[in-house]
Amino acid sequence: MREARMLFPTGTFVAFFVVVFAVSWALARRAALWKPFIIAASYFFYAFWGWKYALLLAGYTAVNYVFGRLLVSATRRRGWLLALAVTVDLLPLAVFKYYGFLAFNLSEALGGLGVAPSIPLLQLVVPVGISFTTFRGISYVVDVYRRDAERASLLDLSLFMSFFPYLAAGPIARTSELLPQFSSRSGPRRIDATRALYLIAMGLAKKVVIGDFLARSLVDGVFSTPGQYSSLHVVLSVPRRGAHRPDVRASSPVQLS
After folding, report:
1. Which end of the chain, N or C, is less surrounded by CB atoms within 10 Å?
2. What is the pTM of this model?
């Protein structure tokens, strides 16, 4: 499948990262060019998994940008605005992840009451990293509501929402922690290259040495044929399932310097 080609320890991702890193390094002192470039690279990264994902990401960005402006300008009912923003953010996640479950159980329940509902059972493909995107948007509106962060410009919010090291793999960055780093970029000569390479190497080691080993030796087998494993094996495998999902496989402890 094409999705597997942009995972962290693959040649495709390495080629993408080398190009982006080189251009990013060259533009380090020119924020007016660096930000649009990283946004474009991040959208390319996400669209590689499916171009519709990029449209969804743009929609999330637009919605949270509007709610951020409303929360800043509102003097009353700010709590209601926040609740509405969080609800709108959660709707796509609920539809993609839980629509089938809810539709099936609702049909069964109504059928038991003698009602024959016409609820379509859709086979929806869950967008890569949608959970991270959802809660990144929520973190922004919550920080703006609490006044822990200033309202971001559309450019900065687009960068915050799409920043590719966090996009598909997380973690969920706080607006107050990540956005200031975009505005105070260090020159390339001031970056701690040793620490940066160490973080990348540690992320790769965790993925290849620990994550893949656990997946091959335990997790994949348990989820494929759970009846052949003991209860202890099943319990131990559940928390590690997330590390083997496509939307978090590319994780690495990358951060801005």
Report:
1. N
2. 0.72
